[in-house]
From TrEMBL:
This is Sugar ABC transporter substrate-binding protein. It comes from the Bacteria. PANTHER family: MALTOSE-BINDING PERIPLASMIC PROTEIN (PTHR30061), MALTOSE_MALTODEXTRIN-BINDING PERIPLASMIC PROTEIN (PTHR30061:SF50). CDD domains: PBP2_UgpB (cd14748). Keywords: Signal, Transport. Residues 1-20 form the signal peptide. It holds the Pfam family SBP_bac_8.
């Protein structure tokens, strides 16, 4: 794949000098240029910090060194301000030439005609959409046109501290097996046993700053839905959601999880929590630390099913980007999908490119076959251009329920009402 892509990149770079007469064929001959042309520089916006940012930086470095006609510069933005900045840039027509967008954030950009369909560019570039997992690709298709290239699926797994399990006198394999067959009450009983054996250590770190994610993990396990099939009404005020909220409230009330933990990912990595329902994007960070012995297993099926929350990072090209930079951006996108995804997979994400998924380098990474299996159970967001606003309301109201120890029945009534008001607007 690498030699074929390098040859294509050489042709593509030459094509950018002419902006015509190129069909993206790997066998096409590069036009002879009369004089050296300065490389095309494109700006790549993304929200990846920490360990993820290091992997993206490596992908950009590798791409820039793989050819001489395109230079990718990146602008990393804080995740909590990323979409505000991106939306503003797209509205004013000045900003990135290629950008990351979660699949569930693409729809409003399509509706506003702020990003371009990529089918034509992909064909010119030789990017084969049939190599993108169908679930991922379908999440960014509107009116039979593909508006983004998915690069991954990401979701949660259950991380555990091997040293702490051993200190509690438990066998790792037996614990992993046991977790597959527990009810919510049995799971809490098990955490209580750990609490008694290891006082001062949090049995289970829960992502309270982004509580909507662990809530949706268990709610989807229970078979819940956010919206009705026609996506016109909310469908969250029900016994399934109530059972999940009461489960988490019991965890917090009994001290099995710390409601006030603002950085549970660090709590786990620092050896202060036995279990952590964390993102697969943390796998590289946790597993590469030789001083920290951690393991990973699937989320326990406490509520009967195996569906869980998840999302997908995609790459998009804004409408205002010039033809020359569109070609350059697509060259980078293809490289990211077909080559960079191996590096991205080292961070923990499951590549959306099926060819990369089947690559022995990826499959031989720790726990990746388990990641692939778990990715089949991901439930992506409803495909509505109001999802971003709905998700914000969901996040705020769920946070209010747990932080203020609100009656979950009343909280769900209020939540569903606010979601319906938004859907009706």
């Amino acid at each position: 794949m690498g030699k074929k892509l390098s040859a294509w990149l050489f042709v593509m770079v030459a094509c950018m000098g002419l902006l015509a007469g190129c069909d993206g064929s790997d066998k096409a001959e590069a036009p002879v240029r009369k004089s050296a042309k300065a490389p095309v520089e494109i700006l790549f916006w993304n929200p990846f910090g920490g360990g993820e940012g290091d992997y993206v930086g490596q992908i950009i470095k590798d791409f820039n060194e793989s050819q001489q006609g395109i230079v990718v510069r990146q602008l990393r933005l804080e995740s909590n301000e990323y979409y505000v900045r991106l939306s503003t840039a797209l509205s004013f027509g000045k900003g990135p030439d290629v950008a990351v967008a979660h699949a569930d954030r693409v729809s409003p950009f399509v509706k506003a005609k702020q990003i371009i369909p990529l089918d034509g560019l992909a064909q010119l570039a030789g990017l084969d959409f049939s190599h993108i997992e169908p679930t991922n690709r379908n999440s960014v298709v509107y009116n039979r046109e593909t508006y983004a290239v998915p690069i991954d699926t990401h979701f949660h797994m259950l991380y555990y501290n091997k040293d702490l399990l051993a200190k509690a006198g438990l066998d790792e394999d037996e614990v992993v097996s046991k977790l597959r067959h527990l009810t919510p009450q049995e799971f809490m009983d098990f955490l209580t046993l750990l609490q008694n054996r290891l006082p001062g250590v949090q049995p289970l770190a829960v992502n309270t700053p982004f509580f909507q994610e662990p809530f949706l993990d268990m709610y989807y396990e229970a078979g819940g839905e956010l919206l009705t099939p026609d996506m016109k009404h909310a469908a969250i005020n029900n016994d399934k959601a109530l059972g999940v909220l009461r489960f988490y409230q019991k965890l917090f009330a009994s001290g099995l999880s710390d409601l006030n933990d603002k950085t549970p990912w660090d709590t786990f990595h620092n050896g202060q929590a036995i279990f952590w329902m964390g993102g697969i994007w943390e796998a590289g960070h946790h597993l590469k630390d030789s001083s920290f012995q951690s393991g990973i297993t699937e989320l326990p099926s406490l509520f009967g099913g195996n569906k869980q929350w998840g999302s997908s990072h995609t790459l998009v090209i804004p409408t205002y980007v010039t033809k020359e930079k569109q070609l350059a951006a697509m060259a980078f996108i293809r490289y990211f999908s077909e080559v960079g995804s191996l590096t991205w997979g080292e961070a923990g994400h499951v590549p959306a490119n099926s060819t990369v998924q089947n690559d022995s380098h990826y499959q031989n990474l720790p726990y990746r076959k388990l990641f692939l299996e778990s990715s089949r159970h991901v439930k992506l967001a409803p495909n509505t251009d109001k999802y971003s606003a709905l998700y914000t309301v969901l996040s705020e109201e769920l946070q209010n329920i747990i932080a203020n120890r609100q009656d979950p029945k009343k909280g769900l009534v209020d939540l569903e009402q606010k979601l319906n008001e938004l859907l009706a607007s």
